[in-house]
Amino acid sequence: MKIVELKESILENNDADAAVLREELKGKGITLINLMSSPGSGKTSTLLALAPYFEGKLSWGVMEADIDSDVDACTMEAAGVPAIQLHTGGMCHLDADMTRQGIRAFGRDDLDMIVLENVGNLVCPAEFDTGAALNMTILSVPEGDDKPAKYPLMYETCQLLVVNKTDTLPYFDFDRERMERYAKACNPDIRVFYISAKTGEGVAELAEYLLAAVLQKEA
Amino acid sequence: MKIVELKESILENNDADAAVLREELKGKGITLINLMSSPGSGKTSTLLALAPYFEGKLSWGVMEADIDSDVDACTMEAAGVPAIQLHTGGMCHLDADMTRQGIRAFGRDDLDMIVLENVGNLVCPAEFDTGAALNMTILSVPEGDDKPAKYPLMYETCQLLVVNKTDTLPYFDFDRERMERYAKACNPDIRVFYISAKTGEGVAELAEYLLAAVLQKEA
């Protein structure tokens, strides 16, 4: 499994660079998904739960960004999903240039979809356009229903909100309506899915939505 | 309840500035604790659980840093703990200068202890010395036992690690020994407490430790 040490971008206009990368990827038929969340919300386990639904329908791979471990990329590869580990060298987010470095090192222009698992952080990654076609965030039930009120930019920039660990709803005071009210105040069009990556609840619906979003784009 | 809009520091040497602030606070007999964690680990609820143990023994207050909500400061004040809300204006962490701005606006030189509840983020806050006498981090059980392996700098810079939400241990695959092994690889001297802010388990021991740490310094 390949590990890439990313270099900090020297480009000054990340938004322009991200727009260029987005066009490049569109030209190659690759849908890039930027997956963001707090540490421990279940980014990797959600991808593992989705994997069986993509089999035979979609070719995909994962770029795992981390400060310096390689646990997640190893986990994805063990599950048969092509993966590459990106080390940010302490950086708290990825920008478009760092994402491009990762995609080049991955060297898989044949994929329909690449998921960039961003650094676990609700603040900084939301500020940097990576060039992704779709921004997706995971909020796990134990984190609490008030997160969209406290970290609004994350929810403004995401089209997709996946609420994970629904199997733990009985043990936490998590009010779905309140959470959705906060999230929709940030972004009225945000699409919300409830899943448990552990039990599999709701994963089929999320997989179906992602398959349609990615394959439709190719049609 | 006062809300302070913090300005980004223009000082170049944060470490030097933090050392100066630490000495200033020592001179005033104030112990500053920098409390850090992922979003939703339970920083505010841990402080609420500690509050009754400090009553009559310690005068203290809380500075709640947040991107732009004021939920936490209101919660603390409602519980009778002096609190001030610091808005970081999108910034993902506090440095020593921002901390000083907060302390000045708080204007409570009579307190034994001020807890700075940093922005929910395991990455950036660990990089900036705030001038605190003690760095404390909370890891909640649902986040997983691998967090110290993934966010090592946080555990290197903290003297105190509080594992919260122990009441949910039966529902998560959280291996205490593995977590402690990872944490001690970052910092062999890190002190670990296990608590549930919800049920109160372990809170008395943590309170006792903090009381001793703060009052001893005054003696």
List key phrases describing it.
homodimer; 219 residues; alpha/beta; Rossmann fold; eight-stranded parallel beta sheet; 8 helices; globular
Please provide a brief summary of the model.
The structure is a homodimer of 219-residue chains. Chain A is an alpha/beta fold and 219 residues long.
Can you describe what's shown?
- The structure is a homodimer of 219-residue chains.
- Chain A is an alpha/beta fold and 219 residues long.
- In chain A, helix 7 links the parallel strand 7 and strand 8 (191-194).
- Chain A is 38% helix and 20% strand.
- An eight-stranded parallel β-sheet of chain A has the order 1-4-3-5-2-6-7-8, sandwiched between helices.
Oligomer state equals homodimer
Measured by residues with Cβ under 8 Å of the partner chain's Cβ, the largest interface is: A-B, 32 and 32 residues
Poorly predicted residue ranges of chain A: none
The radius of gyration of chain A is: 16 Å
The figure for the number of domains of chain A is: 1
CATH superfamily of chain A: P-loop containing nucleotide triphosphate hydrolases
CATH topology of chain A: Rossmann fold
The span between the termini of chain A is 32 Å
> How much helicity do the residues of chain A have?
25-40%
Number of helices of chain A: 8
- What are the secondary-structure elements of chain A, in order, as H or E? EHEHEHEHEEHHEHEH
State the CATH architecture of chain A.
3-Layer(aba) Sandwich
Neighbour order of strands in the largest sheet of chain A = 1-4-3-5-2-6-7-8
Kindly report the average pLDDT value of chain A. 93
Backbone shape of chain A? globular
Specify the CATH class of chain A. Answer: Alpha Beta
